[in-house]
Amino acid sequence: MNGANLRNAHVYISGHHDFFPDECYGVSGKENGLGTQMILIVDELHEPVKTDIAKDGTNGRRSNFFRNRRWVFRFFNCSNREEGDGRLWRGVARRYWPIFEETDPWKAGARR
Asked: Hey, what CATH topology would domain 3-108 get?
């Protein structure tokens, strides 16, 4: 997590594209078609977040951000995120990804 994330309300997913199925990527303009909606379960938020990931309109490359970013400011405010904080991604099932704090017991090895 860096200052740009906090200022612009986005979470980088670069380096994690192999984690998301191809059908979750839609064209650049949502009016032209969305990818299959994913459900993100985010710490501190009471409702699941539905989103896809857009592709660049000029070169077709996958975006490094979720299309729906309205939830990110709420998450940052509720969780008191600061520059340098990390994020732990864990796939549970296809199109269903909880987002946990780095202190999650799965990372600590408490559950295997």
From this structure: At1g16640 B3 domain (2.40.330)
CA distance 91 to 81: 22
**Beta-carbon count within 10 A of 53 CB:** 20
Per-10-residue mean pLDDT of the chain, 112 residues long, equals 86 85 89 87 85 91 92 84 72 60 47 36
**101 near 107, Cβ under 8 Å?**
no
**Domain spans in the chain, listed from the N-terminal domain onward:** 3-108
pTM, rounded to two decimals = 0.73
Rounded-to-integer distance, Cα 20 and Cα 96, Å: 10
